[in-house]
Amino acid sequence: MEIALERARAETERAIRVYTAWNDPEARQVKNEMLAACGFDVVGTAENGDEAVRGVLASLCDVLLADVFLSGEDGLDVCRRVKEKKRTLPVILLSPFLNGFLSYRLQQAKPDCLLILPVNSARLAEKIVDLVAYRRMLCANGSFDLDRSIDAMLKALGVPYSCEGFAEIGDALRLCFDDPTLSRTVTKRLYPLLGEKHGKTRKAVERNIRSAVEMAFDRSTPAVLERYFGNTVSAGRGRATNSEFLAALTQALRLEARFRCDP
Hints:
By secondary structure, the protein is of the alpha/beta class. The protein is 59% helix and 10% strand. It folds into two domains: 2-138, Response regulator (Rossmann fold, 3-Layer(aba) Sandwich), CATH 3.40.50.2300; 146-261, Winged helix-like DNA-binding domain superfamily/Winged helix DNA-binding domain (Arc Repressor Mutant, subunit A, Orthogonal Bundle). It contains twelve helices and five strands. A five-stranded parallel beta sheet has the order 2-1-3-4-5, with helices on both faces.
């Protein structure tokens, strides 16, 4: 964690500024003190949704960290309203559970990350650092649009919108862009996350993504496959595994973001 924090400070010449929103006063104090102890600058805090929206929009924070269950407007409403004004500001929501209705509302609010409580300080700190670092690459001027790049990439690979796994593989790439370790833990972490969002079993998610991968290798040209996969796929097997496919495309997206956004 110390290395990640030092990297973030070196890139910005200052501590990452965090705005927090917690319902419970005791939890608010404990978490704010924990963030400060990890080296973050807590620039503001709120006890309800309305106060959080006003505070975030008035502050120069780098990330919003909020409880889903805030009084007044809840964390999902806060996220939606903040994103309308500050599209590239990373928003991390925390919740003690995830159910079907929350999954539906998450699709509307579009936070950058949802963490299920309890979460330890080291994991939370790493997530904050990673999200801030990579959201900066998206650039406020819109020179890199993750959704547009994913659509263009899948189109180049011959995966049509009508493919049953198109939605799952697109969401998988969005998740892996922020957390590349997900492409190495697809069965234990990635498929369950996608299953919750799309209301499908882990096996169904795996099968749909596999269908999209096979379609890409059947329809794409050798030149496009070489561009994204090179020699990383076994010639004897012929096609990438789901994990290999997601890892290669995630790396390509990150390189594109760095190329477009670095001065």
